[in-house]
Amino acid sequence: MEKMWAGRFEKALDQKANDFNSSIRFDCRMFRQDIRGSLAHASMLAAQGILSAQDLEDITAGLTSILTDIEAGRLPFDPEAEDIHMFIEAELTARIGDAGKRLHTARSRNDQVAVDIRLYLRDEAAAITGQLRELLAVILDQASAHVDTVMPGYTHLQRAQPITFAHHLLAYGMMFARDIDRIADAVKRMNVCPLGSCALAGTTYPTDRYKTAELLGFDGISMNSIDGVSDRDFCIELLSALSTVMMHLSRFSEEVVLWSSWEFKFIELDDAFTTGSSIMPQKKNPDMAELVRGKTGRVYGDLVATLTVLKGLPLAYNKDMQEDKEAIFDAVDTVKQCLTVFTPMLAGMKVLEDNMLSAAKKGFINATDLADYLTRKGMPFRTAYKISGQAVAYCIRNGLVLDTVPLDVYRSWSDLFDEDVYRAIDLAVCVQTRTSAGGTGHDSVLAQIEWLKPYLG
After folding, report:
1. Residue 217 DSSP one-character state
2. Which pLDDT score is estimated for 12?
3. CA-closest candidate to residue 126, choices 191, 39, 192
4. Which of 4, 17, 50, 297 could be stapled to 45 by a disulfide with Cβ–Cβ 3.0 to 4.6 Å?
């Protein structure tokens, strides 16, 4: 395929250099966005009298037929093409003649690729947001089923205080709700149209950039043509948001790995989302969760790679910026793939409530409630805290738990203790009396579920 810029050159591009320079192998995925941008550009040019009505008709028909043929598999991408823009332009010219050559009036590949990647990422951000909503729906379903399922809450991976499984799950629900907000915020700044910036300086043609932006569903235009072609902040912002999504998925995956181990045995994953061992027949491995955890570093790498590419670039466009696409495409693909597996894995897991409760009964996680019992009777908290610690030490020495310490022993530490202490430190009571907003109590958890429901869309 002859290069569009071949007129200036007396020698053909070396094949090795052509392969190195070409981006068709990865930017071909933007063919829909490229055609959509070209259709809007042609419509604007015709409205401004820069293209004839006949040229617009021919261009529209030609681009539409190219889109149809690519989607149907009848038009393969030419690996010799420099990029998706040149491929479509060359194919259009081959189909409709000189009208295809006039399409590139008042634009450059610099602003063309800038609009293509914004359109593409806007579409992908919407798809990922939809997947996050599906995951959030599963979290809310599981939480609703386990509002009163008691489990140990942890700090430092040590049993700390009793909570409900719903409360724990809803912490992740809050994370993914913020991810939805974060992606929406990134899209807000992404949604401005650079088309019409041309190479960097604008154009002498009487274009209407606002019309193009309107046709493509943008909120406005990039107000500086140099910035329009050189800005990739929106890639960085989306990559940052996707990295945060992966961080949340990775934390959740780590807990799934722990919970499904024999040491915890809080959940059992469905066979459809686990694997076995080639040598140990008893194994049921949480490989999907482990892969999600592992792929998090890959998305982090995409963010750091893009930041590094951009950090030293002078204005305006530089070929280095071609490196943005493989990184952002990989991040988008990875997040979508992880959500595709993680959501049904979570939906299908079996919660082993008895094991959770059994674990909660160990580790003295009602020790704070014991101190609160004394505080409510007038004892200063720090004094109550010390007595509660003495009670824990006594239990450890004598193989007891706080619930089984004799009342006369409690009274040897303080005459404030009475029969009602056993109800106060009952795990179910400990959970249900935490009625503060955002806490683990029944009504508080139900309020959290209701708060998250609008995020389902």
Report:
1. T
2. 72
3. 191
4. 50
Q: List, by residue number, the catalytic residues.
A: 156, 277
Residues 6 or more apart from 5 whose CB is under 8 A from it? Answer: none
* pLDDT (0 to 100) of residue 327: 98
Q: What is the pLDDT of residue 432?
A: 93
Rounded Cα–Cα distance for residues 111 and 107 (Å): 7
Question: What pLDDT sits at residue 339?
Answer: 98
Q: Which of 258, 242, 333 is nearest to 290 (CA)?
A: 258
What is the spatial distance between Cα 238 and Cα 246, in angstroms, rounded to a whole number? 12
Question: Residue 224 corresponds to which tokens in the numbers above?
Answer: 């500086």
Cα pseudo-dihedral 125, 130, 136, 141, rounded to 10:
-170
Residue 41, Cα to own-chain centre: how many angstroms? 32
Nearest Cα to Cα of residue 149 among 353, 449, 429, 351: 353
**45 Rama sector, left if φ>0, alpha if ψ -120 to 50, beta otherwise:** alpha
Instruction: Give the 3-state secondary structure of residue 415.
Output: coil
Copy the structure tokens of residue 257. Answer: 């790995």
The helix/strand/coil state of 345 is helix
Q: What is the residue whose two structure tokens read 């020495």?
A: 397
Q: Which helix (H) or strand (E) holds 159?
A: strand 158-164
3-state DSSP assignment of residue 158? strand
Residues 6 or more apart whose Cβ sits within 8 Å of residue 329: 26, 29
Side-chain half-sphere CA neighbours of 233 within 13 A: 12
Q: Output the DSSP codes for 370-392.
A: HHHHHHHTT--HHHHHHHHHHHH
pLDDT at 10: 60
* Bridge partners of residue 163, in order along the sequence: 151
pTM of this structure = 0.93
Please enumerate in sequence order all residues whose Cβ is within 8 A of that of 252, keeping only pairs 6 or more positions apart, or say none: 172, 342
DSSP 176-199: HHHHHHHHHHHHHHH-EE-TT-TT
Assess contact for 119 and 36: CB atoms under 8 A.
Answer: yes
Q: Determine the Cα–Cα distance for residues 191 and 47; give it in Å rounded to an integer.
A: 23
| 192-193 and 220-221 strand pairing | parallel
- What is the distance between the alpha carbons of residues 311 and 321, in angstroms, rounded to a whole number? 11
Longest dimension (CA), the chain: 101
Sign of CA dihedral 213, 121, 171, 165: positive
Question: Do 53 and 91 meet the contact criterion of CB atoms below 8 Å apart?
Answer: no
Spatial separation of the C-alpha atoms in residues 199 and 316, rounded to whole Å: 8
